[in-house]
Write a structure and sequence with these properties.
67% helix; single chain; 5 helices; mainly alpha
């Protein structure tokens, strides 16, 4: 019997915890050493909803809703 590798976990998915921790650390450092950035982004608010956060969440969710195959996108780019 031969075992075919049908997919597996990708590089990004494999290190997702690392990416999340790096982004959290970057956010904390930006807030501490560059306080003008959060103050500026805090001005963009509507009905107590942060517009930059809403846009970033939409950008994060949209590819999953459209079932984007990132491996195919990577193959097109490279």
């Amino acid at each position: 019997m031969s075992q075919n590798k049908t997919g597996g976990i990708g590089f990004f998915e494999k290190y997702l915890t690392v990416w999340v921790l790096l982004c959290m650390a970057a956010g904390i450092l930006i807030g501490k050493f560059l306080p003008g950035i959060p103050e500026f982004l805090g001005k963009f608010e509507y009905a107590n909803v942060s517009i930059p956060i809403a846009v970033l969440i939409w950008v994060m969710i949209y590819p999953m809703m459209m079932k984007v195959d990132f491996q195919s996108v990577w193959n097109v780019i490279m």
